[in-house]
Each structure stands twice: as structure tokens, then as C-alpha cells.
Request: fold
Amino acid sequence: SQTIHQWPATLVQPVGSPLSLECTVEGTSNPNLYWYRQAAGRGLQLLFYSVGIGQISSEVPQNLSASRPQDRQFILSSKKLLLSDSGFYLCAWSDRGSGYTFGSGTRLTVV
Amino acid sequence: DAKTTQPNSMESNEEEPVHLPCNHSTISGTDYIHWYRQLPSQGPEYVIHGLTSNVNNRMASLAIAEDRKSSTLILHRATLRDAAVYYCILNNNNDMRFGAGTRLTVKP
Reply:
């Protein structure tokens, strides 16, 4: 069966520090991968999606970036965090045409 | 992008059926209708999806209007654990976008 792993569960980082969130999927090959962010009390915002290794589409210009170095690995990064980067970050995967499966999320607080 | 419209909130009594509406008047022929729900502090959970015909699974039923411009998610017997935000989304490519959803409150 397919599983998605996302870590860490919570993270507190100072302003200006770097960020690296990792997401891996097991039990499937060539999935579509996604990063979403949810600010407190708000809806989900699509940040990046990837249809294959090295293929990244960015939805919102900001100081975040994403990479897909392997088929089932998706990484969200920042060189310098801002206070506004705080939120609940969710990774998801899908097989084309099917539903999305979300990870358990990372709650990031920038202080 | 095709958009959906849902009520901000709804209430239901426990053990009663719940009908959650969604309007998607600009739906295209290749858009699938997806429903997800999100419990507090968790990621969204897939509920059901369909294209033209009504769909049933162990969680819910999806009723799709004949013109596909609206759909209804049906929870046959609401439980307290069904209290969540329910999202109706149109999906036909690789970038599913969530709206504000409907916050369902279930009263005991």
C-alpha cells in the first residue's frame, strides 16, 4: 500500500534561518507531488507541484523553493525564513486522475 | 480556473443525514468533482470523487446534477467524528486548488 511520510511534525525557527522540509512517498512510482500551506484559520494554498523528477511548478512567488531529487522525494526549502512563512505545511501525492493523499503536516512557527 | 461555491458553515444533528451542497457552474467536461474533509490540526482526507454519475463509498455518497453544475455530498448518518471542514474541488490536471470549504458542526 502507498504511504506518505512528512517530517518534522513541528518546527520552531528564527527569522532569517534556513528551512528544509522533506516528504517521501512509498508504494507508488512517478506520482504527482504537491506542497500546500495553510495559515492559521485559513484555507489551503498550493505552493508547488511536480509531475516528475526535476520538474517543479511554482504557484506563488515567495522566498520558498521546492526540489524533487528523486522520484518519490519532494523537498521544500527556504534560504531565509520570514515571519509570514509560519503555517501548516502539507505534502500530498496523487496518481494521475485519482484522489490526493496528504501527509500529516508540519506546523512551522517562525519567531 | 474553474471555481466552486459552498456555504461557509452548516449544522447537523448526530445520527441524521447531512447534505453538503456545492455549485460549480463553470465546470468543464473533463473536470472531476472531488470532496475532501479536514479535521482540526490534520491534513485533508479524501472522501469521494466523480465525473458524471453518482458515486457511493463507505464514507459518503456523491450526487451530481445532470448538467454537472452542482453536486451534493451526502453523509447518511452524521457522527460527532464527521465534524470537519468539507472541501468541494474541481480537478482535471495537476494543480488542485482548495477554496474555503464548509465547516460542518455536528450536535449531539
User: Anything to note?
Assistant: Chain B touches chain A at residues 32, 34, 36, 41-46, 49, 87, 94-101 (CB under 8 Å). The CA atoms of residues 33 and 87 of chain B lie 10 Å apart.
